[in-house]
Write a structure and sequence with these properties.
One of its GO terms (cellular component) is membrane. The chain has about 300 residues and is mainly alpha-helical. About 75% of the residues lie in helices and about 0% in strands.
Length: about 300
Amino acid sequence: MTTWKILSVTALAMMAFAANSLLNREALLNTAIDPASFTFIRLVSGAAILWLIVNARHRKTGFNSSHGTDRHHGKQGGPASLAANWTSALALFVYAAAFSFAYVSLTAATGALLLFAAVQATMLGTGLWRGERLNTAQSAGLLLALAGLVVLLLPGVSAPSFWGAVLMIAAGIAWGVYSLRGKGVTQPIEATAKNFLCAVPFTVLLSVMMWSRQSLDWAGVGYALASGALASGVGYVLWYSVLPFLPATAAASVQLSVPVIAALGGVVLLDETLTVRLALASVAILGGIALVLRRDRKSG
């Protein structure tokens, strides 16, 4: 893959991830769709597009999906042979559901920033719990990021909704767990397709529980389909296709762009206001995380 193609695909993947925040926020702010229905449509459409992509790839490489074997090598492989990982599927569902419910009251920028901070905190916290240690620069970066989070959540006129923030932090923790469980997976696109499919029963249950509050319109359904099929499904395929060509440092650091893209998109497309509080918190949180990631990769 050429350098230009790597950069282009990486940029598209980051824009797709940021688009999830914009699509969720726009749908829940300006259409009639409810969060449970949005989550259902997002996960089902994501599972469908991922499944189509996986099977198309396997047909192209000679995989016989009806028997779960490779015609050329006779080996088990592909989506039919991947065992269901219900823990990962549950983490995926919790992320998607909490994400949508949080965007009832959060701006796209605030939501993306809280999500990203919670994901990184979960993964970093797990590393510390497993015995990893921070050097002085990493510790300073962590303290800076925590200070930014405190600034963002302190009570005040521009403070985000408390319960919205709690839900988005829960979504970030769930996505952090999902990401940790996916480390070392040799077929990430296939595993993601399987996890999306296994998450569908959970979202069906949520929809049944929230049936009395169900509300749909064509615009909301369209945003949910775009979030699931394009921003999620195609976005993950783009990311996993370019990930092997990125150094570990670049792969970790480039994701810092997602909250920034979401913030800019919120201002331009959703007419949101970029407050001083959010700007300061963003600089502190993203700068602190960048410092931790950079030092971690250099020392490792």
